[in-house]
Amino acid sequence: MSGRKQFDVDEALDRAMRVFWELGYAETSLDTLGRATGLGRGSLYGAFGAKDELFRRSLERYAARYEHRYEEAVDAHAGDPVAAVGAFFDVVLDRIGDPDVPVGCLVVQSAAQLPTLSPESRKAVDRAVTAQRRRVRRALDAAAAGHEPAELDSLALLVVGVQHAIVVLSRTGAPMAELRSLADAGVQAVADRLAVTTR
What we know:
Blueprint: H1 9-23, H2 30-37, H3 41-48, H4 51-75, H5 81-96, H6 106-111, H7 119-139, H8 149-171, H9 176-194
């Protein structure tokens, strides 16, 4: 029987993810990660590699936990882009309002810290942001018959931009009513633009 201390990798990743989520990459130290996970530096390196690699593993963990919620929300309103965008924002607000997780969004907060990240981690964050934009763009495809692709691309960018604004404002302590109002304004902007046929 080995005398080495065993630990739950998934639980350690959850705790590391939460630290990066709460503090951001730049403010997260190996000592902080060690205290959160209960692992010494040697064990952290042995299990996950350097801080940069653990950060990317945390991003993957975050995606595995939340991406399907966006997919399900959008897919539940296939054919109705306005309702799909509204459901998308509902997921954003539900996560922000969850008292059991940190405020904000790990991906958005990491995007704001790109200069502090390695090239590999920058690419990982960019992939996550791009995936969200593509998800929204797919929700808008139901309106494609009356709108130019470039216009729908622009609307997808607007929706993701509003999402990012909501996340940032949530970190400042903005009340949920204000965040909901911003989301509603985003939905209304999409509805107004789609109501105008360009072809």
